[in-house]
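Sample intake sheet
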Amino acid sequence: MHYSEYPTASSEAITKELGQRLDRIRLSRNVSQKDRARFAGKERRRARKKQVVQSEWRWGDKRTK
């Protein structure tokens, strides 16, 4: 799908296209789905931890999460 087709494409078509592009990039880098999922899990945990720390700092919240 060419970018000029996006304004008239359905959200499902755009989502499908982006998913296919990400798969092509992942495969070109020789990354398995399992490795990608493992990395994504680490990133989510890291982002959540950072969010909690920032929230505690911002609001002075000393409770443990």
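Comment: The CA atoms of residues 1 and 16 lie 10 Å apart. The helical segments are 11-28, 33-59.
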